[in-house]
Every structure is written in C-alpha cells, then in structure tokens.
User: What shape does this take?
Amino acid sequence: MPVVASLAPPVPDPLVGVPVVVGSTPVVASVVLELVGLSVLSFFSGPHPPSVTVSAAIHRFIPPLYPNPAQRVANHRRLRYAPPMTIAGFTRDELLHEALVSPCDGRSVCADTQVYQRPGWFQLLTPSFCHGGFNEVAFARLDDADVESVIDATIAQYDAHGLRFRWTITPDCRPLDLAERLARRGFRSERVVVMAAAIAELQIPEADGIVIERVGPHNVEVHADVAGRGWGMDPAPLLAFQRGVLADPTDDRSHFFLASRDGVPIGIGNYKALPRSAFLIGAVVLDDHRSRGAYRSLLAARVRHAADRGLALVTTHARATTSAPILERLGFFRIAELPVFFNR
Assistant: This one.
C-alpha cells in the first residue's frame, strides 16, 4: 500500500527524515507547486494582493517573508510580466493559480518516488528516472550556516543513484545567493516561463502532412519511444508511468498525443484537463523533424481537444529559449519566470 506523506515538525537537517514512497498522492503533489505558487503569487506586478485562498494554504508550510504585499512586489520587480489584466476572464491571481497550483491537484507520481517534505524544504527523488522527471528540489529555505552542507548532501544523495535532478530557485528561497552557490558547483541553469492564453483567441496554423492521434494502450509504446528519443532518456520508466495513468479508470484528465508524418512518428505532446483550464506538458519533436510544423500541429490538437471539453484557458511552463518564443508568437502571454538549475 502506498503511503501518503503527512506534515511533520521541522527537522534541523533538511536531509534527515524517512522518505515516503508514494503512488498517487494528491495531497503531497499539490504541496510542491503550492510552494512554488507562493513565490510567484508574492511578487507579481500590479495592485492586487496575492490570492488569499492560495496563500493561506501555503503559509502553513512557509512563513511569509514579506507580510506586506507592497514589500513583496517591490522586492521582486526584477521579474518581467506583460499579460493583460485578464485572460479568458481569469484575473492575474487566478492565472497564476491555474498555472502553478491546479496542475498538481491529483498529479500522479511513480511507484518508487520518494517525497521529502517539511517546512522550508520539498524534494522528490525517483530512482527509476535516471535522466529526467520526478527528481527535483522544488523549495529550499536554508540558514546561512547550513546551506553549504545541505547542498553537498543533496548532490551526494542524487549522485548515489546516478540521477539527473533540477533545483528550482523561487524568490522566497534562502539564502539570497543560493543560485550563485549552485552555479559555483557547476549546475547548469535555465529559465522557465509561465505562460497563458485564451483558447478562443488562438489561431494556430497547422502543417500539411502531419497526422495527430490520441494515445491509448494500442500506441503508448510508440509514444514513450518518441519521448525517450526526444528527451534523451530511457523510455522504459516513462512507459511504465504512462501505462499506469492510462489504466487508471478514474483519470479522465491526462491526455497524450502522437504526431506522425508519412506514417513515421516524429513528436509527442500531452496536456492535463483541469477543472477550469488546460495545462500543456511534455511536448517534444525529434531533431530531424523540427521547424516543419509538428509542434504547432500538436499544440493545435491539444487546444482543440480542450475546447471541446468546454475549457477556455490554457497554461504551460515553457523553456525561455525554445518553446516560449514560439508560444508567444502564437498568442500566449508571459505571466512569470523562474530560474531552474540542473546538476548535469
């Protein structure tokens, strides 16, 4: 039986504690992006304070560093935002909630995922995913006296399993020079852009000759193979995860798509149908077939499917140097940016 983690009292050493092996853990999964959500909600530009509903839940885990919303906004002016006041009728608070909190409600994780959580720390470790996914430090608030030893211990923990992992730096992470400390250790950094669009306003040109099909038990192996090649990872753990999702009769929210040209699979794209919006995840096109419309066709198919379900808003987290510029040209708005560090 999988064990659902519960909140525990603060632990002096962020790496001390019993790992919790989970299957599907709605409570735990929602916490990880609630932590990230607090950071973004606390520094968006504009006159409106953070969502009381979201912040109240998050503050159970992290004490507010800037109780006054004006202080929070002033502290984080360095981040760029250019969305209109509303998108598809969603306010900025609601957009951030849909992009950062809602995607984790009911999120599935792998059978061997270990969740480490306590105030000031949230971490996932999944031995079966050596080169991608489900391995991350999503939030870290550390004392200056402990930060170096904690970084050392965290790196050693993932290295012991030979895992690639990411470390997300949100503005509420501490110490303030945590990003610089990771960079000095040789971590590679990227910027992730949180984006949103009104589905009714999108006009996405589709490419001739691209066939998009839904993924089910009959073609999930092909989908996993393309994803593995596109991301440079072993498709076996991904296939096991996807088979579990497809076999779950209660999951009507996870949707996988496969793109082909002349009968040859060339790309994949997925999305989560949330109660109020669609969340795009996991799109990749094989190198030899890029810049020929497959990405746009996968995007159009997912947006169309979401519209048929009655959803009006679509959100995603996009790499700043690759998919974000494409999505922006197609009508998406930048809502927030976050730096992410990778150990390899």
Remarks:
- Confidence is low (pLDDT under 50) at residues 1-81.
- The radius of gyration is 20 Å.
- The first helix runs from residue 26 to 41.
